[in-house]
Amino acid sequence: MGSGALQIVGLFVGGIGMIGTFAVTGMPQWRVSAFIETNIIVFETIWEGLWMHCIRQANIRMQCKVYDSVLALSPDLQASRGLMCAGSVLSFLAFMVAIIGMKCMRCTQSSWQAKGYIILTAGLLFILSGVVELIPVCWVANTIISDFYNPVVNVAQKRELGEALYLGWVAAVCLIAAGAIFCCFCHCCEKTRSYGYSAPTHYPTHHEHLHRKMESSYSKSQYV
């Protein structure tokens, strides 16, 4: 019962991380315009994402345009596009493998080892997808912070951290947590299986010992 609840918790947390990864990949709020110094045009907000950039005017009208070319993006956003797509695929695969592992809750002795391998694979995929997602999110955040405090960069080109980055950190933590849960479950299953199927040591009882002694005495009398 406890192991089943642990699997459900891991699958739920991993599902949240997977959905968050999909949302972060498509959201345009990776870079948000900063209103500092002489840049006081507050009625217009600029969003820059992996696939498009948007201009929102006075919370009423918003226009978005897909990038004409990948080369128009900065190097960090170019790499982030590929890494986030890879992270999305890995998180989806991890979620599906975890579901397959949970479907064989009632396993025979011969399938316990296969079940452990499936759960371990799901856990490793969840951890890998979380790490892959952390790389672009942290990379873009570091670039934004570096440009913000760089006096050489024009004020109009400075950006702030968008909502997609914060959501990306949360999703990555959920994926890594789900992977840790499944790996811990696999370790507990291996211990339970090794303890449950070890043959108990048989000690002879007093009656068996007396019976063997009588048989030995009879065998000696036959030679007399």
UniProtKB/TrEMBL annotation:
One cellular-component annotation, GO? bicellular tight junction
Instruction: Explain the purpose of this protein.
Output: Claudins function as major constituents of the tight junction complexes that regulate the permeability of epithelia.
Q: Can you tell me where the transmembrane regions are? A: 5-24, 81-105, 117-145, 165-188
Q: Which UniProt keywords apply?
A: Cell junction, Cell membrane, Membrane, Tight junction, Transmembrane, Transmembrane helix
Q: What is this protein called?
A: Claudin
| Family named by the database record | Belongs to the claudin family.
* Molecular function, one GO term: structural molecule activity
Looking up InterPro entries in the UniProt record yields: Claudin, Claudin_CS, PMP22/EMP/MP20/Claudin
Among Pfam families, the record links this protein to: PMP22_Claudin
Cell membrane recorded as keyword: yes
Membrane disposition: Multi-pass membrane protein
As for subcellular location, the record says: Cell junction, Tight junction; Cell membrane
